[in-house]
Each structure stands twice: as C-alpha cells, then as structure tokens.
Amino acid sequence: MRHFDLVIIGTGSGNSIADERFAGWNIAIVEKGVFGGTCLNVGCIPTKMFVHTADVAAAPASGARLGVDAHLDGVRWTDVRDRIFGRIDPISAGGRHWRAEENANVTVYEGTARFTGPKTLDTGTGEVITADRFVLAAGSRPVVPDVADLDSTGYHTSDTIMRLDALPRRLTILGSGFVAAEFAHVFSSFGVEVTVVGRSDLLLRHEDREVATRFTQVASEKWDVRLKRKAVRAERVDGFVRLHLEGPDGAEVVESDELLVAVGRTPNSDLLDLAATGVDVHPDGRVVVDSHQRTSVEGVYAMGDVSSEYQLKHVANHEARVVQHNLLHPDEPIESDHRFVPAAVFSSPQIASVGLTEQQAVERGVRYVAASQAYASIAYGWAMEDDTGFAKVLADPDTGLILGAHVIGPQASSVIQPVIQAMSFGLDARTMARGQYWIHPAMPEVIENALLNLPLAH
Ligand SMILES: Cc1cc2nc3c(=O)[nH]c(=O)nc-3n(C[C@H](O)[C@H](O)[C@H](O)COP(=O)(O)OP(=O)(O)OC[C@H]3O[C@@H](n4cnc5c(N)ncnc54)[C@H](O)[C@@H]3O)c2cc1C
Ligand SMILES: NC(=O)c1ccc[n+]([C@@H]2O[C@H](COP(=O)([O-])OP(=O)(O)OC[C@H]3O[C@@H](n4cnc5c(N)ncnc54)[C@H](O)[C@@H]3O)[C@@H](O)[C@H]2O)c1
Fold first, then answer.
1. Residues 332-383 pLDDT 10s
2. Which residues bind NAD(+) per the record (predicted)?
C-alpha cells in the first residue's frame, strides 16, 4: 500500500494548495470528475462569461429611453457557448496535464475517493493508499428535489444547462436563489421565455428584505415569476416538460422546452465514507472544522463547500490559504476570517451584500441605524436613468461602525467593495464618508451618500 505525506481530495480550490513550498512532499491528488472543480468548469467562471454576454444582449432594449434606438438581431448560441468553453476546457485540461505529467512529487488518481479505515483511502482506481495528512476539498453538488417523476422526465442542473445544443424557446427554473436569478437573466436576455418557480414569497429571500422585495418586483416584470408554489410532479408530453405545481390558487401546470433545477447544493461529504476515518459531520452534511480548518481527526483538514457555511469561491480560496499555511506550519496555525463575507448575485439588476441584513440585526437584538440612497439620486444614476437601484447601510448608532451593506443596481458587486474594506479594517461610517475623496460623478457616490444619511449619535 503506497503511503503519502499528504492526500488532497478534490481539484477545485484544493488544487492550489500544493505549490513550490511542498516540493519535498510526496503528495497524492484524487479527482472524480473534471480537473479544476466547480468554479472553473460549471460555476463562477462560465456563468459570469454568460452573464456578461447576456448584459450585452440586453443592452439594445435599454437604449430607447436614452434616445438610442437599437435592436438585437440575434444570439448565436453555439458561438456563445463554444467561445466560453473553448476558453475554459483547455485550462482544465492544462491543469490536469501539469499535475499528472509535470509534478514529480504529485501522483494523480482519477477516481471517487472514499475512506475504508483510519487515514486509509480507496482512490476508486483499484488502489488503496494511506497518508499522514489529508485535505478534504470535495466541494458540493446540486440538490435534486423530491418531485415525482423528475428523473424519468429529464432535467438540467447548473452542471449541464450551459452546454445545451440549442437555445430553448421556453425555460422553467425551479428554485429562487443565486443560480435561478443568474440563469433567468442569461436566458431571458437571449430571448428565452423564462418562468421562475419559488417556494417562498420572495426571490433571493436570504437577502435584506428590502433588496429581495425590489428584486422580485423588477424580475416579475421580465419573467413569469410564480412564488409560494410547490412542485409536485413532472412529466414529458410531446417532447415538452410539464411541471405540476400547487400554489395559493390551487393546482397549475407550467410547460416548457427545458427544466432547470436550482434548489441549492449539498456537500459531497457523503461520498467519502468519513465515519471510516472518524471525521465528524454536521447534520446538514458539512464536515465539522475548527477555525484552523482542522477536522475531528488530527492531520485531516477540510475546506470549501464540503465544510463551509459559505458556498462561495472567495471563501474556498481563503480557506485553502489557511490550510496551506497550517500544513506548512502546524505549530503556528492561523485561523480563517469569516467576519465579513461578501456575496454578489450577477443577475439583472446585480445584488451585493456584506454583514448583517436588517432582519438579522432585529432577530439578534443588535442596536443599529439604517439608511439608504437611490441610484436615481446620484449623478451617475441620472446618466443611466436607473430607477430601481439603491444602497442600504446599517451601522452601530454610537460607534458608527458599519454592520452591513446591501446594494441592488448596476455594478453592485464592485460598488460594495469599499464597504467590505471599511468593515474589515474597522473604519466607522463618518470617517469612511468624509475621510477620503469619492470620484465625482462615479457610482460609489451611492455608498458615500447612504453613509452620510445614517442618523449617527455623532
Ligand atoms: C452555477 C454556479 C455559479 C457560481 N458562481 C459563483 C460566483 O460567481 N462567485 C462565487 O464566489 N462562487 C460561485 N459559485 C460557488 C463556487 O463555485 C463554489 O463555492 C466553489 O467552487 C467551491 O470550491 P471547492 O474547492 O470547495 O469545491 P469544488 O470546486 O466543487 O471542487 C471539489 C472537487 O472535488 C471532486 N470530488 C468530490 N468528491 C470526490 C471524491 N469522493 N473523490 C474524488 N474527487 C471528489 C469534485 O469532482 C470537484 O472537482 C458558483 C457555483 C455554481 C454552481
Ligand atoms: N454569484 C455567486 O456567488 C453564486 C452564483 C451561483 C451559486 N452560488 C453558490 O451556490 C449555492 C447554490 O445556489 P442555488 O441557487 O442552487 O441555491 P440557493 O441556496 O441560493 O437557493 C436555493 C433556493 O431554492 C429554494 N428551494 C429549495 N427547495 C425548493 C423546492 N423544492 N422548490 C422550489 N424552491 C426550492 C430555496 O428556498 C432557495 O431560495 C448558492 O447558495 C451560492 O452559495 C453563488
């Protein structure tokens, strides 16, 4: 049985750990799928390449109110798709080749790993290995909801929808979170009739309620949004998918060419038979880790979607750096910093958030003041004729320290960044607003003004 210094399971964010500082280590990497993991192959990267393309496709329609009459002649779907994956697939193949053929100290096993005993791993390739240290970086996968006959009907997830051979005429999206909001924007901008089916009363219900309400209003004008619906059965009739729903007005059916299921992601910990090596798992499937990313077994670390509360690439990258340091310096371990984790939804409009929502502040009994500023009331908002976007900030009324920020509108994912910086470095709202120049007339003025609107004690 081969023995290694380190085994890394999963080539998403885990693949970045073994850099030149590990040249003297004997390392095994196990991957069951395509090299590079979710973000590169089926997540952040391709979706944002589609989102940018969708923004371009949607631009002509927004020109008329500025006095520019433009028309979208068409979207060459296969060209769009092949440009995106023509860029991505070689990166994945190159990464695999580099690890498998050019890293003298790394052995790549292409199989589904599972533990068979303490620090003993079946690589799924016919070979069982042992190691002193393991990194569990096995990520997550789409949840398949309990809807009768879904399997026999056939459906897509975010893993497959981007590789369609042709644009559907109609697309139903089951789910109302990040994936649903981003793909609804992509496909509707390409001319597809989109229906979004959600369980709760709002799209993106985990956002600050004012933001989720505004997004739901804007979305309902563009897409057929059906909320408070339960999907009970699916069927395929004459080649079309029919989704049977139960809602406030009783039973209804949505028919479309394709169905995208986007109801969340579950950690891949169940594939690993972790009990065999004694690693603890939360009831929701996340591997239990401490602030140093250590599991319940000495020498076994976990990071990213398989263990994190946040299924986000910037969090997985951060945790990978922590694991990397702690492998190299076990006597001086560092902790992950999850104080101010931001997130953005790249839909239309965009949404970005960091820190507490107003609802969380209320639920947790946190003292706060809140203020907002509309894009429509800053100069660049006039330039864009934006009439739905706004920035909202929450702060401690006494210290002025920022507790949360929520932005809905153009470039929200970039506009919010100075607030993330202020929160991370303990800058109070007044100092942040008045202690620096804000380029006029640029979009971050929406943040400057929201900060100035806060009714702080001093
Ligand atoms: C459609 C979509 C869009 C997204 N967009 C964004 C975004 O814009 N911004 C953002 O921050 N985040 C985004 N995310 C989330 C982000 O992709 C993930 O948080 C991140 O990729 C997780 O990285 P990871 O290394 O933990 O797991 P992964 O990248 O999923 O890597 C895990 C790897 O482990 C392998 N594996 C699993 N089990 C085994 C096993 N038993 N044996 C061997 N190998 C195994 C898998 O095949 C996979 O390659 C998006 C996700 C999706 C689905
Ligand atoms: N821009 C980004 O950073 C980005 C983009 C895409 C995905 N992601 C990550 O991937 C994760 C997964 O995305 P997601 O959109 O699949 O999950 P999500 O958790 O964001 O949203 C899932 C939604 O589906 C709803 N739902 C659950 N079961 C349902 C059912 N049976 N019928 C109808 N609705 C149901 C839930 O109430 C929830 O609102 C995200 O939470 C996020 O962390 C991030």
1. 999 999 999 999 999 999 999 999 999 999 999 999 999 999 999 999 999 9
2. 175-182, 264, 305
Q: Is the CB of 114 under 6 A from ligand 2?
A: no
Known binding positions: 48, 175-182, 264, 305
Ligand 1 shell residues, CB under 6 Å = 9-14, 30-33, 37-39, 43-44, 47-48, 112-113, 137-139, 158, 179, 268, 271-272, 304-306, 311-314, 316, 346
Contact, 148 vs 277, CB < 8 A?
Answer: no
Query: pTM of whole model > 0.90?
Result: yes
The predicted-structure confidence for 325-334, as pLDDT tens digits, reads as follows 999 999 999 9
Q: Taking the C-alpha atoms of 408, 337, 263 and 363 in order, what is their torsion angle to the nearest 10 degrees?
A: -70
Q: Is the pLDDT of residue 458 over 90?
A: no
Q: Which of 204, 202, 198 is nearest to 243 (CA)?
A: 198
| pLDDT score of 457 | 85
Tell me whether residue 244 is one of the annotated catalytic residues: no
Q: Which fold has domain 143-264?
A: FAD/NAD(P)-binding domain (3.50.50)
Give the distance (Å) from ligand 1 centre to CA of residue 304: 8
The reply to whether 143-264 and 349-453 are identical in fold is: no
Q: How many angstroms from the chain centroid is the CA of residue 242?
A: 28
CATH number listed for the domain at residues 2-41+79-139+268-328: 3.50.50.60
Task: Tell the residue nearest (CA) to atom 26 of ligand 2.
Answer: 263
Q: Report the alpha-carbon distance of residue 184 to residue 178 in Å, rounded.
A: 10
Please state the ipTM of this predicted complex: 0.98
What count of other Cβ atoms lies within 10 Å of the Cβ of residue 426?
10
What mean pLDDT is reported for the chain? Answer: 98
Give residue limits of the domains in the chain. Answer: 2-41+79-139+268-328, 143-264, 349-453
Tell which one of 9, 34, 39 to mutate to probe ligand 1, the residue whose CB is within 8 A of the most ligand atoms: 39
Alpha-carbon span 401 to 438, nearest angstrom: 19
Q: Is the pLDDT of residue 255 over 80?
A: yes
Q: Is the CB of 145 under 6 A from ligand 2?
A: yes
> Quick one: 349-453 is in which CATH superfamily?
FAD/NAD-linked reductase, C-terminal dimerisation domain (3.30.390.30)
